[in-house]
Amino acid sequence: MANATAVINLDIEGPKISRHLYGHFAEHLGRCIYGGFWVGEDSPIPNEGGIRLDVVRALRALNIPNLRWPGGCFADEYHWKDGIGPRDQRPRMVNTHWGNVEENNHFGTHEFMALCELLGAEPYISGNVGSGTVQEMSEWVEYLTRDGDSPMVRLRKANGREEPWRVKFWGIGNETWGCGGNMRAEYSADLSRQYATYCRDHGDNKLYRIASGASDDDYKWTETLMQQISCFGCEATPRTFFQGVSVHYYTVSGSWEAKGSATDFDTDAYYRTMASAQKIDRILTGHSTVMDCYDPGRTVGLVLDEWGTWWDVEPGTNPGFLYQQNTLRDALVASTHFDIFHRHAERLYMANIAQTVNVLQAMVLTDGDALVLTPTYHVFEMNKGHQDAASLAVHLRTEGARRRVGDADLDTLSASASVKDGSVLISLSNLDTEEPAEMTLDLRGGSIGEATARILTADGLQAHNTAATPAAVRPRPFDGLKVTDQGLTLTLPPHSFLTVQAPSA
Which family does the entry's similarity section mention (predicted)? Predict the structure, then answer.
């Protein structure tokens, strides 16, 4: 059994944990949009203007802060003017990236903005750099955000929207190193400057432009982008071509060619997965360090706008739809990621799980009129109190909470904490498959009121929710907290995620 002490100084607040670290991603991929968010106005499934309301209700319970759309790889073949105007007059298109299926463009700009309004989420639009033009993206910004009288404003009003929307977040392309154009870093950086120049601030709508950044640990790509806006070691504020730089990282247990099953895996594959998940700490540290050389004031944000697990598709489903089940293992990948995100709160501004509905590490799965909340959904819900909270450093002292996995050391205990509005939230994960952990929460510099806790676990790592068993993995009250002179003690079961919440005094 592992023994651990988590020292938390309640009176020393760290950087704010941006609520946008709990962001989401919805691509025209498989059944994420069509059949997920969008069922159409004639559907017997309850909807508002074609948007599926049970999905909206589920996501509103997470306080979803932002939603990234329309891709992903799809963004760089999407031409936004095909998705406006009367739906029966919109041209069809072929989704060449994902399944080579035809789409009718019934879900477009107005439908996406209506979805964001229903969700209470900020829109994050990824523009087409790969096959589009500077003018096309510039006009999209104008169409959405400009007031007064201009060609794009008149077009928007003709399509039924008088007032402009507020759209802060704009992605300058997606994965330009790969599906977004197979570009060199230098060429992509030049395009980022060019496109960002013509993505204008209209009125008081100030854009947060996010340059298409690196895959995994390609720190050279990040350096090439940062060189466009500052110089090595400069103290001056970086030029404002873009305000954020993206990076993508997916967790797998095998190779890209054989990622493994989402539900049929052994303990060794589980531990390889968790070791892969913890690599995100090193990757974020590497990109942050490069950015520090050019932006020591940390005014430019790091944006992890694609992350999550990626498994082989479920048997019998379209391989281009990336539909996978979601187990307790996926939930622990998410809880570990969030602890790491919180530690990087000073530089990491946004993160977007891939993806929200029916694709990869989804929040919800739909099948006809059935809706299933995944184990990963519950981690987001249990952790939502961290959004826009002040981080609290957790100094974790452990014995026996590490194991060798391949050529890496896996820490089997993970923790983070924050305080907001007089409430302390502590998140704890035990990644060990067999051994519980005796935890002492050594709370210093303040006191707390009566604490409550919830736990997410199951009998097996492979446990998951289905329409027939929708609550196989769900949060339950945890009554194992004991008050001591130091703070609290508890026994954290194997393969479990637990949150402790208490008023601060």
Answer: Belongs to the glycosyl hydrolase 51 family.
* Euclidean distance between CA atoms 461 and 397, whole angstroms: 26
Q: Is 364 helix (H, G, I), strand (E, B) or coil?
A: strand
User: 491: which residues sit within 8 A by CB, 6+ positions away?
Assistant: 436, 437, 438, 439, 480
The CA distance from 209 to 214, in Å, is 16
Which residues are catalytic, by number? 175, 306
Burial class (CB in 10 A: 0-12, 13-18, 19+), 210: buried
What are the phi and psi torsion angles at 76 (to 5°)? -90, 10
Q: Which residues of 31-64 are buried (b: 16+ CB within 10 A; e: fewer)?
A: bbbbbbbbbbeeeebebeebbbeebbebbeebbb
Burial category of 88 from C-beta neighbours within 10 Å (exposed 0-12, middle 13-18, buried 19 and up): exposed
Do residues 270 and 333 touch, judged by C-beta distance below 8 A?
no
Q: Which of 251, 307, 240, 257 is nearest to 277 (CA)?
A: 251
Q: Helix (H, G, I), strand (E, B), or coil: what is residue 393?
A: strand
- Euclidean distance between CA atoms 17 and 265, whole angstroms: 34
Report d(CA 395, CA 5) in Å as an integer: 8
Q: Is 418 within 8 Å of 342 (Cβ atoms)?
A: yes
State how beta strands 487-492 and 413-420 pair.
unpaired
- Token digits of residue 492: 């954290």
Domains for the chain: give ranges and CATH numbers: 16-228+240-252+300-389 (3.20.20.80)
- In the predicted model, is pLDDT for residue 505 greater than 80? no
Of the candidates 15, 24, 33, the residue with the CA atom closest to the CA atom of residue 305: 24
For residue range 273-299, list pLDDT tens digits in order: 999 999 999 999 999 999 999 999 999
Euclidean distance between CA atoms 486 and 324, whole angstroms: 44
Q: For residue range 182-205, list pLDDT tens digits in order.
A: 999 999 999 999 999 999 999 999
Locate the DSSP E strands across 237-329: 244-251, 301-309
Residue 336: its pLDDT value, please? 98
Question: Beta strand 423-430 with 496-503: parallel, antiparallel or unpaired?
Answer: antiparallel
How far is it, in rounded angstroms, from Cα 293 to Cα 15?
A: 20
Structure tokens at 300: 């430019």
Full-model pTM: 0.97
Taking the C-alpha atoms of residue 365 and residue 362, their distance in angstroms, rounded to an integer, is 7
Does position 235 have pLDDT exceeding 80, yes or no? no
Edge to edge, the sheet with strand 476-478 lists 476-478, 452-456, 496-503, 423-430, 413-420, 390-399, 2-16, 437-444, 487-492, 482-483
Give me the chain's average pLDDT, please: 96
Q: How far is CA 407 from CA 252, 272, 399, in A?
A: 16, 10, 20
